[in-house]
Amino acid sequence: MTDLSMADGFMIKPGEWQIAPASLFEFSPGQGLDEIMAEYQDKLFVVMQDYLYSSDPVTAYRNEFNRYINEAFTFSFVAGWADAGASALTDEAQSVLSGLIASEIQFADSLFTQLKTLREDDEIPMDDKMDAAHAHAEGYTQTLVGVYAEGKMMGEPNRDGKWELGATEQHCTTCASLNGKTHPLSWYLDNGYIPQEAGSGTLECGGWQCDCSIVDPKTGEQLIP
Ligand SMILES: [Zn+2]
Question: Residue 220 Cα, ligand 1 centroid: separation in angstroms?
Answer without folding.
Answer: 17
